[in-house]
Amino acid sequence: MPVFVLPPPAIASVAIAGSAERFAVRRIFCVGRNYAAHARELGNDERDPPFFFTKPADAVVDSGAEIPYPPLTSNLHHEIELVAAIGRAGFRIPRADALAHVWGYGVGVDLTRRDLQDQAKKAARPWDWSKAFDQSAPCGPLVPAAKTGHPEKGRIWLAVDGEVKQDGDLAELIWPIADIVSICSEAVELQPGDLIFTGTPAGVGAVQAGGKITGGVDGIGAIEVTIGQPRA
Predict the structure, then answer these.
(1) Start and end of every Fumarylacetoacetase-like C-terminal domain (predicted)?
(2) d(Cα 190, Cα 103) in Å, to the nearest integer?
(3) Is residue 143 within 8 Å of residue 21, measured between CB atoms?
């Protein structure tokens, strides 16, 4: 048994719908600009191939949480996403085999410090500070693919304080789930516990301290988080 200088951190995890068990999270990969309308609203070309950025595993937070408004930003944005949870390892996975590596699905929100992202883009610097901050990856309970199948269409939506801001359909994904899993596995060997946030539809926008975010994906589930006051 190894002896650690400091106590090891708690294992990051996501709830599983209808179960006391939890899904241990290893890594979080996120796909940028995977809905054409969202790519256009940010001034990008929707024909670009997919690209990925990451968040730390402990950025996950359960549905129902209150998340402090993060530091260093005055423009915190919501991005609703279908989340694919990997249950089987694979490297250079053929597209035809990709869905066999998905354990289940959930509903996530990619919280983004948009002002920091805009600054990073202009300076040609990494996005880390805009995307990979504390509690920046809320994720609702996962549902096994054995129960839901692998969704190809269905409403995906998000509301702030009851007002719908994002309203799209999974059929609008530029790169469907099988493509995303296959392409991601070209760069890294996917492992059980990896989460892939698959992209957000149009309508992203700011949420203020005190704002309540609700959202969902038809046939998969829902999520609800509150943005609290900044930490003292």
Answers:
(1) 28-227
(2) 12
(3) no
Sheet holding 155-160, edge to edge: 66-68, 221-228, 212-217, 155-160, 163-169
pLDDT tier at 33 (50, 70, 90 boundaries)?
confident
Instruction: At 91, list the tokens.
Output: 């490297």
167, β-bridge pairs:
157
Q: Are strands 60-62 and 137-139 parallel, antiparallel or unpaired?
A: parallel
What's the pLDDT tens digit per position in 102-149?
999 999 999 999 999 999 999 999 999 999 999 999 999 999 999 999
Q: Give backbone dihedrals phi and psi of 178, rounded to 5 degrees, phi first.
A: -60, -40
Picking from 175, 232, 225, 203, the residue whose alpha carbon sits closest to that of residue 52 is 175
Residue pair 196/58 in contact by the 8 Å Cβ criterion: no
Residues 56-82 have pLDDT tens digits of: 999 999 999 999 999 999 999 999 999
Q: Are 87 and 101 in contact (CB under 8 A)?
A: yes
Question: Which secondary-structure segment (H or E) carries 115?
Answer: helix 114-122
Spatial neighbors of 5 by CB under 8 A, at least 6 apart, are: none
